[in-house]
Amino acid sequence: MTVLPDAGAGSLTRTRVYAGWSLAVVGTGLLTAVLVPLHQGAAPTFEAMLFLALAVACALVGGRWPALGASLLGTLSLNYFFTAPFHTLAVESGLNVLTLMLFAAVSASVASVVDSAARRRHQAGRARAEADTLAMLNRRVLGGEYAEPELLALARDTFGARAAELAPYDTAVPAGDTAVPAAARTLLVLRGVSLAPAERRVLAAFASHVGVLGQREELARQTAAARSLEAGNRTRTALLAAVSHDLRTPLAGIRAAAETLRHHDARLPAEERRELLTAIEESVGRLTTIVADLLDMSRLQTGAVVPLLTAAVPDDVVEAALAGVDADARRRVHVAGPLPAVVADVALLERVLANLLGNALRHSATAVEVTAATDAGRVRIDVVDHGPGVPPDQRAHIFEPFLRLGDQHRGEGVGLGLAVARGLVEAQGGTLHVEETPGGGLTAVVELAAAPAGPAGPAPAVDR
């Protein structure tokens, strides 16, 4: 952080001016007291050099006027104590008169030159500090390193203010504070400091950057709102398209079966009636799954899912998850048990495994394995299928709502199954991702906290 030098060092502080005058008066007296006993009566060349050095020192400490005062006092001391006749201001030799005049002129000139050089050095240092501050502002603000609070804190520290804040444009600013326009109808106010015009220019740069940050944050808010609206529109469009297709299919099946039974029930053989009733049951089951997925996704998006975490046994949960699966498909599921207990909500975990097992059974004509392993207090449950799998570049998208890869199984749901499964797992403090099955296929990996040893019951809370 760059702290700007005092803008008034073209005008020295009162402390330095007082110190310069003190040095001129006290230094002249002490120098005279030391040199008088050593003076041998010759021309005061050596003494003049020492008084000249004192004048230069006064210029460095207190500026031009203390240096000129030291020059005058040195001239008087040289005349009175070191030039014959001694102890009088009269001068006998014209050479001594010329010497005193030259000393006065040279000492005054040197003091003025030293004072001017010191002022220019300070001004150059201040200009460099201002340039560094402005360059730093441009780099960090445009680079996005500063937000509005950090920039206000930087302005406060740079100018040594008590506080820096934004205020309405019509705010009354006390005499001891400084204010410059920032953004539309806004002031940047420094509390407890009154700045010189040169410092106000730098403060104006801070104010303009504060305005830029405000505009950037407003644009960011508008962009985020627009993206949220766009995402909502995409979701509604996808939902409408998915529901319009996936609800129509089972509803059409139910209607066709019901009309057939109503108009031809008496003439239908018992076997055909059973098939129609089975078709109705299956269509109702698909509708129930669709509605359940939609309700679960709505609850997840609104944060309404509050899991009841207990020590759950995955073997029992898998068995419950397969209750709605036909016997042929159930026989294709092999559980490498016993599976280690996990911290989970049993009902939610059952929904997750039902989703994953149903997905695996739909895409794999061979066996589906369920395995588990414990590592570092976590349990990894794998649902392994040997179907066609998912290309690596598409795996990151399979958990997106309303997304289904390919056109297979269009009647099975609205594409919410994996999205709901991930949301339910994360609500229980776990994770869900997919990996490629060695030899081909897809493995869904659920990771949950391992249940502590002991009787089942309420489990300790886990971070979600």
TrEMBL record:
Domain Histidine kinase: 242-452
TM regions (residue ranges): 18-38, 50-73, 93-114
GO MF term (any one): ATP binding
Pfam families reported for this sequence: DUF4118, HATPase_c, HisKA
Membrane topology: Multi-pass membrane protein
One GO cellular component term noted in the UniProt record for this chain: plasma membrane
This protein's UniProt keywords: ATP-binding, Kinase, Membrane, Nucleotide-binding, Phosphoprotein, Transferase, Transmembrane, Transmembrane helix, Two-component regulatory system
UniProt EC number: 2.7.13.3
Reactions catalysed, as given in the entry: ATP + protein L-histidine = ADP + protein N-phospho-L-histidine
Domain of life: Bacteria
Record localization: Cell membrane; Membrane
PANTHER family recorded: SENSOR PROTEIN KDPD (PTHR45569)
UniProt protein name: histidine kinase
Protein source organism: Nocardioides luti
